[in-house]
Input
Amino acid sequence: MTQPDYHRLALVAADTPRAAEAAASFRALAEWHPLEDADLVVVLGGDGLMLQTLHAMLDHGRVVPAYGVNLGTVGFLMNRYRDAAKTLQRIGKAKSVAVAPLVTQITTRNGQQETYCAINEVSLLRETRQTAKIAVEVDGKVRIPELVCDGVLLATPAGSTAYNYSANGPILPLGSRTLALTPISPFRPRRWRGAILPDRSQVTFRVLEPAKRPVSVVADQKEVRDVAEVTLAVAERDPLHLLFDPGHALDERIVAEQFQF
Output
């Protein structure tokens, strides 16, 4: 299959000495354009900066493929950094991986409504020392009338190795068209450890006793406090595209992560 030819590149770099040094090398090797005019963006930093960049594109309604260069810590969404010249040569051979975000519709206790997109996961978390009580509904059917817990989350395959995995949720292969529904420190039902759902599912969380047991929701890097209801579904719009070097694609990383000890 013919690889796409990217002509107008944008560069986004983290505000760190290491990323700044690398950015200077990249700028000396190519002509760079504003993100809104580019057909590809090179992101120098870590997973947090990649998420910020993807969200910025979603907010402005123009999404282009993103190639990440790991100059942060974990770098799960990034490629290994060697030097700027070799990195630019590898972009044309990179594999594109489609990532569909979750559309998050939030209603707060006072009736305010917010809509956000989440690429990794959406999590509901208790705000006080008291446990949260949350009803879980899937496709219009109440599956758990009362989940007593510290919280609950819904993760995409791309985000399944992040907070979801730390909460003992399953790792989902890319292309599996599934979502991970994972409780956080569940107290009741005691034996429920979560579910794997088709990505066509619509999931609704209703907060029980919201005045006594307030709950916040976090959609990637956006937080809303004192929520009453959260409805989630995979976005119907065109997916985001992340680029990975051959042999280091995100789907291979997701498989390999399951064999780490």
